[in-house]
């Protein structure tokens, strides 16, 4: 059967017409979607202004499905929700971004970082830790490690904190030597509570080797030696503290005086404390000198020398306690008034947040800052 060319002549115009119609339909669809995208934006903005965050998110997600260039809108919306404390909504926004197949590597890392911050702010530390570990090798690696450091400190996972701090120290993200030494001290305290004396000593030896200027290491090792009956070695550690960290001497002065009396080395310790007192009068150093006094008169003179150099209600109260006035009843009332007035002045105050405490902390319970407590009392600041 011969092929009829007539059908070909009819077919070409028909194919052309169908192609033209299809192109017009695509154009109309594109125009329809282009009009719909701005409407979705405005609808989402309207919901946001009306405090309808769920509807706003749905509207913005609808907008982004037709226009991949709205990534920045998602980031802005997620950050807004996080700042407002709407962590669930922030997580939804950033998880939606991560679910997109067309997201660039840079934006994917950014979304992963934002998601980790959502979990962190919400207090979901386990999920935050998992999200932060996924940022290794990205542009957010350093920020992620710092956030992990905060998580491990809050959970008191000191070995993990030490590992992260050593990574940060290795890439020169500031010096973490002192922070690592504190982590070792925390591990030493744990080992000591568990009765692991040898491990405790090894950790503290590492502390004084790594950070000889950290008073905590010397004081902790001195306390350990004292408990083990090595009073001479314990005093040697506190004398090393006086050389390596002289500003922290007030923290060790009382222990130094007690160990000096136990070991019969009161004279050199008294000379050291008197020299420190002459340079910068300290309440704790004065009290240590009073403990070393062989006669009550010597203790009173130590208090008076302090008062001559620097007025102090705390020291005045200590001096009054050693005096005998003619009216014993009046003296008791005056002493009680002095003690009440001087009590708050004996506290330590965090230089970072102002949190006050009766005892000295190496890490502030209020703001979690390290070494933020000066070695001096509130009255001396």
UniProtKB/TrEMBL annotation:
Protein topology in the membrane: Single-pass membrane protein
Stretches assigned to the Cytoplasmic side: 24-381
InterPro entries in the record: LapB (IPR030865), Rubredoxin_2 (IPR041166), TPR-like_helical_dom_sf (IPR011990), TPR_rpt (IPR019734)
Any one GO MF annotation of this record: iron ion binding
Cellular compartments annotated: Cell inner membrane
Residue span, LapB rubredoxin metal binding domain: 348-372
Pfam families attached to this UniProt entry: TPR_7, Zn_ribbon_LapB
Coiled coil: none
One cellular component term from this protein's GO annotations in UniProt: cytoplasmic side of plasma membrane
Superkingdom of origin: Bacteria
UniProt-annotated binding residues for Fe cation: 350, 353, 364, 367
Entry keyword annotation includes Kinase: no
Keywords: Cell inner membrane, Cell membrane, Iron, Membrane, Metal-binding, Repeat, TPR repeat, Transmembrane, Transmembrane helix
SUPFAM superfamilies: TPR-like
GO process annotations (BP): lipopolysaccharide metabolic process; regulation of lipid biosynthetic process
Family: Belongs to the LapB family.
NCBIfam families, A to Z: PRK11788.1-3
Task of the protein: Modulates cellular lipopolysaccharide (LPS) levels by regulating LpxC, which is involved in lipid A biosynthesis. May act by modulating the proteolytic activity of FtsH towards LpxC. May also coordinate assembly of proteins involved in LPS synthesis at the plasma membrane.
Alphabetical list of HAMAP family matching this protein: LPS_assembly_LapB
Protein name listed in UniProt: Lipopolysaccharide assembly protein B
Organism: Hydrogenophaga crocea
Gene: lapB
